[in-house]
Backbone:
């Protein structure tokens, strides 16, 4: 997917397309593992749900579990440059929403990967 950048974009949309999307794409496999770990810590109930319910579970987890949400944000923000961070803090609330929506969509798109592979048990 190619992201278009143009002069009519809002600052938030430009930041999303130039900074957030590339970082989230880079960290995609890590987000899947972070979510699998979350599921394991919550008794693996995710794996017993229908596909529709799994999608709801992903959305509810990202939007309602603040500790999990903050972990995801930290995974993204930790890869910002200083300049990117300065831009981010000017409008962090709106950018946080954009971040979480992109991560949610990526996890939903990867629901099969989350389902078909299991986390290795500690030896």
Residues:
């Amino acid at each position: 997917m190619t992201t278009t950048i143009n002069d009519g974009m809002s600052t938030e949309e430009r930041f999303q397309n130039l900074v957030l999307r590339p970082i989230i794409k880079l960290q995609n496999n890590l987000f899947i593992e972070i979510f699998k770990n979350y599921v394991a810590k919550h008794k693996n109930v995710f794996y017993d749900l229908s596909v529709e319910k799994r999608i709801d579970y992903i959305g509810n987890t990202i939007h309602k579990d603040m500790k999990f949400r903050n972990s995801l944000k930290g995974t993204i923000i930790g890869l910002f440059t200083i300049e990117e961070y300065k831009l981010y803090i000017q409008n962090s609330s709106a950018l946080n929403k954009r971040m979480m929506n992109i991560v949610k969509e990526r996890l939903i798109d990867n629901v099969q990967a989350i389902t078909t592979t299991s986390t290795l048990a500690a030896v």
Summary: The chain has one domain: 11-116. The radius of gyration is 16 Å. Residues 11-116 form one domain. The mean pLDDT is 91.
